[in-house]
Design goal:
With 422 residues, the chain is of the alpha/beta class. It contains 12 helices and 20 strands. Strands 9-7-5-2-10-1-11-15-19-20 form a 10-stranded mixed sheet, with helices on both faces. It starts with a strand and ends with a strand. It binds inosinic acid. Inosinic acid (IMP) is lined by residues 11-13, 38-40, 125-128, 130, 132-133, 221-222, 226, 235, 237-238, 271-272.
């Protein structure tokens, strides 16, 4: 059985957690392949609301294996806290596998992240301060500590102390608080003990599952415009968030991939710094934020809101190879008289429909807007395409045409039952 991938196609927060939860209905394995606990996937089951940061979204379904793949950077203490929280809510965490090849995040990475942000001035990224960048930098510098090291306490201690001392030298140069290495090691030691039984070679586990004909869903975090190569560099995260990242980040060969689900919000949001051509600074932007509850699941920060950006969306869907589009939060637009879609950018007097590599050009881009009439009707109870008002159907068709993909799912609210296949 082939593998499907689900990715975000904007700046994150498209509602991937909910979609994954819906798509995992008949899945055997869910695999995360990049990022870390900078992600916050919200899943609503009945009237309960869960936020996942590292554990894959299949955790709420019995018999689904949840893999934290080799492409992640894993906050050791954060993962233990999250797993304990899930267990306390009555769900089993026995089915969580942690890759022996995944990189680990420790307290010193978080402090280094905060330090970098505090000293970056106008080049501040607005990171989640979860240590993501420093941990990926250590991976590339080949000084990182990996999942496999959790299985050998002596080696883990030696590596942890060596790295913590190195970071403490940096902290003292900048005059910020040093890490109490002994106290921190105690916490790490306990966490490692908890996680040890979950560490395994997930690359073999995933490939064995593929061979056995199991159904596998790879779950992306963040989204294409935050990709380290394809996003709005340097205002991006430090991993490959596009669908290709699933091959390297989970150890899956490209010919095993079947569908790429691209989750796209019916408008656009962004958290953190960086250019955002369709951002709205007026009451309409505030309306989208309030109605769409656009506040970060990880940091609680208010999200910046704007019209649907089809230039960025088309670039993302091209790189991701999205053949199934899942449009979320359509209901948030229910009350608007007219709705803008950005179909091109005007950059220094030139009109283009290509997403620029230059951050200066993107910052200068003025959106060329096309206006579509609103539908002024409640869509939150729609359970099939035919239930949608004609103007809502037209809006969705226009989005799909502009990003050159096909609508497969529409979501009209946060609950599992507010989602339908098209
Ligand atoms: P980092 O991933 O914490 O290094 O943050 C880099 C950029 O990615 C910042 O602009 C963050 O706001 C953004 N970011 C990271 N994770 C997410 C996410 O899950 N949703 C939306 N934005 C994110």
């Amino acid at each position: 059985m082939p593998v499907d991938i689900l990715v975000g196609t904007q700046w994150g927060d498209e509602g991937k957690g909910k979609l994954i939860d819906v798509l995992t209905r008949d899945v055997d394995m869910v695999v995360r392949f990049q990022g870390g606990n900078n992600a916050g996937h919200t899943v609503e089951i009945g009237d309960k609301h869960y936020v996942l940061h590292l554990v894959p979204s299949g955790i709420f379904r019995e018999n689904v294996v949840n893999v934290i793949g080799n492409g992640l950077v894993v906050d050791v203490l954060g993962l233990v806290e999250e797993m304990k929280g899930i267990a306390a809510a009555g769900f089993s965490v026995d089915n969580v596998m942690l890759s022996s090849r995944a990189q680990l995040i420790f307290e010193y990475h978080k402090r280094a992240d905060a330090l970098r942000e505090a000293s970056a001035g106008s080049r501040k990224i607005g990171t989640t301060r979860r240590g993501i960048g420093p941990a990926y930098a250590d991976k590339m510098n080949r000084t990182g500590i990996r999942g496999i090291d959790l299985t050998c306490p002596e080696r883990l201690e030696e590596q942890f102390r060596r790295e913590a001392e190195k970071y403490n030298k940096l902290f003292s140069e900048y005059g910020i608080a040093q890490l109490d290495i002994d106290a921190e090691w105690e916490r790490v030691r306990e966490a490692a003990e908890y996680l040890r039984g979950h560490v395994c070679d997930t690359v073999y586990a995933v490939n064995a599952a593929i061979k056995a004909g199991k159904k596998i869903l790879c779950e992306g975090a963040q989204a294409a415009l935050l990709d380290i190569d394809h996003g709005t560099y340097p205002f991006v995260t430090s991993s490959n968030t596009v669908s290709g990242g699933a091959c390297t980040g989970a150890g899956i060969a490209p010919q095993k991939i079947r569908d790429v689900w691209g989750v796209i919000k019916a408008y656009t949001t962004r958290v953190g710094e960086g250019p955002f051509p369709t951002e709205l600074f007026d009451e309409c932007g505030e309306k989208l934020r309030q109605i769409g509850h656009e506040f970060g699941a990880t940091t609680g920060r208010p999200r910046r809101c704007g019209w649907f950006d089809a230039v960025a969306g088309r670039y993302a869907c091209m790189v991701d190879g999205v053949n199934k589009l899942a449009v979320t939060k359509l209901d948030v637009l229910d009350d608007l008289d007219r709705i803008g879609i950005c179909v091109a950018y005007e950059i220094n007097g030139r009109t283009t429909s290509e997403f620029p590599a230059s951050i200066e050009e993107l910052a200068a881009a003025k959106p060329v807007l096309e206006w579509l009439p609103g539908w002024k009707q409640d869509t939150s109870r729609a359970t099939r395409w035919e239930d949608l008002p004609e103007n809502a159907q037209n809006y969705l068709k226009r989005i799909a045409g502009l990003v050159d993909s096909t609508i497969a799912i529409v979501s009209v609210g946060p609950r599992r039952d507010q989602t339908f296949l098209v």
